[in-house]
């Protein structure tokens, strides 16, 4: 893969880096198919161009100081798409893992994956697991790919784990709390999600990080994912920085110096 050229920061990037950033950003990457259709191209070409946005947004997130970036790459429901499209997406995923491997390792990024990863074809699982293992001790940004992922499926799995632990006598159901459930989610160990971005003009969550986005700020943009590059991403970060996050408190409480900070957002 070509190494990135030195990028001179824009005025917006300088501004964004000077203010508090979201620790964890989740992105619903939507609009690849429409991007291709508008150009009279096969849908797979939209997905291919979308992979360029993945690369650029990942670089930008790491450069400005985002701690964790989670990308909704393939949902549990996407398996129902035409077989040809699914096969093409799996091929692109394998290509991505192979082409981005050096840059991920060279920049100290830790690759993570959430979802029913065991459902992925072997030719995708193997390079995915290799890169996860080889980057496991990296201390830079955590890049999480949500693959064969669904928020309801994640919660159901966690609920089953809790029920089994209770049946074994390891947990008292009367004393279960949020931490017990969170520790069984695929995202366990990641910072709380601060910002969710959705591209393509759609304004829905689509079964993404349902538990984790409880107090997340939302940024909806009309840009189709293949057109969503550095400046669009920076604009979403800037929007986040202009929001007042209250976590159920009043504005007056949030702005008081003696108000305890919420430990988990």
From TrEMBL:
UniProt key word Magnesium: yes
SUPFAM superfamilies assigned: Undecaprenyl diphosphate synthase
GO molecular function: ditrans,polycis-polyprenyl diphosphate synthase [(2E,6E)-farnesyl diphosphate specific] activity; magnesium ion binding
Cofactor: Mg(2+)
Positions bound to Mg(2+): 30, 217
Gene that this polypeptide is encoded by: uppS
Chain sites annotated for binding substrate: 31-35, 43, 47, 79, 81, 198, 204-206
Record-linked Pfam families: Prenyltransf
Active site as annotated: 30, 78
Protein known as: Isoprenyl transferase
Family matches, as InterPro entries: UPP_synth-like, UPP_synth-like_CS, UPP_synth-like_sf
Record family assignment: Belongs to the UPP synthase family.
Superkingdom assignment: Bacteria
PANTHER family, alphabetized: DEHYDRODOLICHYL DIPHOSPHATE SYNTHASE 2 (PTHR10291:SF0), DEHYDRODOLICHYL DIPHOSPHATE SYNTHASE FAMILY MEMBER (PTHR10291)
Alphabetized UniProt keyword annotations: Magnesium, Metal-binding, Transferase
Entry's transmembrane regions: none
């Amino acid at each position: 893969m070509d190494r990135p050229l030195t990028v001179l920061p824009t005025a917006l990037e300088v501004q964004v880096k000077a203010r508090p950033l979201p620790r964890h950003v989740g992105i619903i990457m939507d609009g690849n198919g429409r991007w291709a259709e508008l150009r009279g191209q096969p849908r797979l070409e939209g997905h291919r161009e979308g992979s360029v946005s993945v690369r650029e947004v990942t670089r930008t997130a790491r450069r400005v100081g985002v701690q964790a970036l989670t990308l909704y790459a393939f949902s549990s429901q996407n398996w129902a798409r035409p077989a040809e499209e699914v096969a093409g997406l799996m091929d692109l995923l394998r290509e991505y893992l192979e082409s981005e491997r050096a840059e991920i390792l060279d920049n100290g990024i830790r690759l993570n994956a959430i979802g029913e990863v065991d459902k992925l074809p072997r030719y995708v699982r193997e390079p995915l697991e290799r890169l996860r293992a080889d980057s496991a001790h990296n201390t830079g940004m955590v890049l999480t790919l949500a693959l064969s992922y669904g928020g309801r499926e994640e919660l159901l799995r966690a609920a089953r784990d809790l029920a089994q632990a209770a049946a074994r006598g390891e947990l008292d159901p009367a004393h279960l709390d949020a931490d017990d459930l969170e520790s069984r989610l695929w995202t366990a160990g990641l910072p709380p999600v601060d910002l969710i971005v959705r591209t393509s003009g759609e304004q829905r969550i689509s079964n993404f990080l349902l538990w984790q986005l409880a107090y997340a700020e939302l940024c909806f943009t009309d840009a189709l994912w293949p057109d969503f590059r550095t400046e669009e991403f920076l604009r979403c970060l800037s929007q986040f920085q202009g929001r007042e996050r209250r976590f159920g408190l009043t504005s007056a409480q949030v702005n008081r110096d003696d108000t305890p900070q919420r430990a988990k957002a």
